[in-house]
Amino acid sequence: MKIRLGHICFAAVLCLANSAKVSAQLVNNGVNVFIGQSALLYVDAKVVNNKGAILNKGEMIINGDWENNDASGVFHYLSSGSVMFTGRNVVFSGSSGTSFPRLVLKGSGLFLMNTDLYAKLSLDLDNAELKTGDNRFVLENNDANSLFVNNGFITTGAKGALVRWAKGSDFYLYPMGSSKLGIKRFVGISPKSTTDTYVGVSFVDNDASNDGYSRLNKTAAVTEVNEGYYHVITQLKGANLPLDLSFYTTASEKFSGLVSWATKNQWDRLVPVTLQDNATISPGLTKSFTYKSFNLGADASVPIAFANVTNASPLNFYNAFSPDGDGKNDTWEIKNIDAFPDNDLKIFDRSGNLIYRMNGYSSSKYWDGQNAPSGTYIYILRVKIDGKDEYFKGSITMVKN
Question: Which of 123, 241, 247, 395 shows its CA 20 to 30 Å from the CA of 330?
Answer without folding.
Answer: 241
